[in-house]
Design goal:
Blueprint: H1 10-16, H2 26-43, H3 49-69, E1 81-84, E2 88-97, E3 101-112, E4 114-116, E5 124-131, E6 134-144, E7 148-158, E8 161-172
Parallel strand pairs: 1-8
Antiparallel strand pairs: 2-6, 3-5, 3-7, 4-6, 7-8
């Protein structure tokens, strides 16, 4: 700061000026208000910027998920297998195994309007086998015997642990000819 020859620095002039004394309790009131405002801000989450930022991020994520799941023109996932009456088909059931399973018991049950093809009208078969780590495919022959809902259930049991894989099916009634 440069000083003119006849002028002293402003700071020195201000130091010499008398300042009014604050009213009694002024300092206590200022400190109480500052601490109270801080406590109020901590107590009320709607006064915090983090709350509004989190709400905005959550809303954006919700919109994104909604747009991805409800895109127009995208067909809904298949709800199961549809068969015609008396149709025979091989259904593949995939079993993902985390490790090799020696002597695993596999139980296949056909419920509803289907039967296991080639098993003399039996609706359930069971055997023991080894399942390899990774993807194991069971190809199961079935036949549609009557119209209605059906389910093919594969139950895998090994060392007390049980896992089920189910395939829902629908058998359509035959079309009637209109004369």
């Amino acid at each position: 700061m440069t000083v003119s020859p006849n002028r002293e620095p402003l700071r020195n002039v201000l130091k010499r000026m008398p300042a009014p004394q604050p009213r009694p309790g002024f300092a206590d009131d200022v400190i109480a208000k500052a601490v109270g405002a801080r406590a109020e801000r901590r107590r009320n989450p709607f006064l915090r910027w983090e709350t509004w930022f989190g709400a905005a991020v959550g809303a954006a994520a919700t919109v994104l998920v909604t747009v991805l799941l409800l895109r127009p023109g995208v067909p809904a996932p298949d709800s199961g297998v549809t068969l015609a009456l008396d149709e025979a088909r091989t259904i593949d059931v995939v079993i993902d195994s985390e490790r090799n399973l020696e002597d695993a018991t596999i139980r296949i049950a056909a419920t509803g309007s289907i039967e296991l093809d080639g098993f003399d009208d039996s609706r359930q078969v069971e055997w023991q086998t080894r399942l390899d780590r990774g993807r194991n495919v069971l190809s199961l022959p079935i036949v549609a015997r009557m119209a209605g809902a059906a389910e093919l259930v594969a139950t895998i049991e090994h060392e007390g642990r049980i896992r089920r894989v189910a395939v829902k099916m629908t058998v359509k009634p035959p079309r009637t000819k209109v004369a």
